[in-house]
Design a protein that fits this description.
disordered N terminus; four-stranded mixed β-sheet; three-stranded mixed β-sheet; alpha/beta
């Protein structure tokens, strides 16, 4: 066993011994991690570079962020191992960003005599991680609506693997200005000296180690704001996981849509972009969101209106307030006001999903639920135009295991959560 392997084993053991298996405090801790966890001075991966333990950057990330023995959602994992992705098996991770495993799930189905294949590559961002079977996007040479080369897409295209970006005591973001003492991603922390906002002379890591201004992989102009519950990779069969997304455009911050537009700029210009992003909700849209329960049911109230399938951006960058909203126990389900916003993450997950284009729900058909069932090749009637080659259990997994009873017996797509046209 190599020294690097021992380092990884010991790190894993330390995490489990501390009882942190359901959270992600260890290793990165908001900033740069232990060098030996990713680099090996004397036995790096053959064919790779930068002395990495993987053949490429994303493979190095997945050496920790994919679990070889998957049994269900687990802590900081973002990819389901191939052995758990057989026919009829849905990816297992349920983090807010989604599971890259959906990129390996292709479906073939026949509707009205025409056979169609929905390639797994359409399900999200096609990171290149050769050690784990993730390959370059087979269709898009560059980012849709942009020029970022698909062959270079990796975890560290969006995340700063060295975690240099920090939120200082004055609320601004930069690469220096106080030591990073803890992650700033989570609702709470047990790190000594942790405070929100950080105390003078200290700093917190930015949300999810996201890259900001001056990054060497892509020309980001700032970092977006958010908080997540401490335990976030979990089934939503009983309660939802609420990521509290915030809006800020000063002091090194940037709006969520603007951050995404770094690689997808023409989605926001030149007539290619139609749906508003980073814009405040009108009073009517906020009212629709709060009243909408399911198709045909507009009896909802603002206090319980939130759904993680259609999150919105809060009109604030007050991290202390966002922390009180990041919940996984349904104790904060308040819907939006007209000062809150819609953005890319309202409809898409950042990694991958069970649906085309990384969407949070199936847009390739009018019904998400049909005849009181999740559509599947194993349901009656089959409704192949809605099942799209999936088993009903795979459809349910793509909705993070929600009971079908959360929806109407003929539930239409969730654009209606804001637009109420069903």
């Amino acid at each position: 066993m190599t020294r690097t392997t021992w380092v990884l084993v010991l790190l894993t053991a330390a995490v489990l011994a501390l009882g942190l298996g359901g959270t992600a405090y260890a290793f990165h801790s908001g900033g740069v991690a232990e060098c030996g966890g990713c680099h090996s001075m004397h036995s790096p991966k053959a064919g790779g570079s930068f002395l990495l333990i993987g053949v490429d950057a994303s493979s190095t990330c997945l050496s920790c962020h994919q679990n070889a023995a998957d049994t269900g959602p687990s802590s900081y994992h973002v990819s389901t191992a191939p052995g758990s992705l057989g026919a009829g098996q849905a990816p297992l991770q349920r983090g807010p960003g989604g599971d890259f495993g959906w990129l390996k799930k292709s479906y073939t189905f026949t509707v009205r005599g025409t056979t169609t294949t929905e390639d797994g590559a359409t399900h999200g961002h096609n990171i290149v991680a050769a050690d784990f079977g993730y390959v370059v996007d087979p269709v898009n040479v560059t980012s849709p609506g942009g020029t970022f080369p698909s062959s270079q897409l990796a975890c560290n295209s969006c995340h700063d693997q060295h975690g240099q970006y920090r939120r200082r005591s004055d609320g601004t973001i930069g690469k220096d200005g106080g030591a990073i003492i803890a992650s700033g991603s989570y609702a709470t922390s047990t790190t000594p000296g942790y405070a929100e906002p950080p105390a003078a002379g200290t700093a917190l890591g930015v949300y999810r180690l996201l890259a900001g201004a001056g990054y060497n992989k892509a020309p980001f102009t700032g970092v977006p704001a958010a908080k997540v519950p401490n335990t976030y990779n979990r089934t939503e069969a009983t309660t939802q996981t609420r990521t509290a997304y915030g809006h800020a455009t000063a002091g090194g911050h940037v709006a969520w849509g603007t951050w995404c537009a770094t690689c997808h700029p023409s989605m926001h210009s030149g007539g290619n972009y139609v749906h508003p992003t980073d814009e405040t909700l009108s009073g009517g849209v906020a009212a629709n969101y709060n009243a909408y329960v399911k198709s045909g049911d507009m009896t909802g109230v603002a206090a319980t209106a939130f759904t993680s399938l259609v999150p919105f951006i809060e009109g604030s960058s007050d991290y202390a307030a966002l922390a009180t909203h990041a919940k996984n126990d349904d104790t904060f389900l308040a819907g939006p006001t007209s000062s809150d916003r819609v953005s890319c993450v309202s409809c898409h997950r950042a990694h991958a999903t069970g649906w085309e284009f990384g969407l949070r729900w199936n847009m390739e058909g009018e019904f998400m639920v049909y005849n009181s069932l999740y559509p599947g090749t194993d349901t009656t009637p089959t409704a192949p135009q809605f099942a799209r080659g999936r088993l009903a259990a795979e459809t349910q997994a793509a909705y993070y295991d929600r009971p079908v009873t959360k929806f109407a017996n003929y539930q239409r797509v969730l654009c209606n959560k804001c637009h109420a046209k069903d």
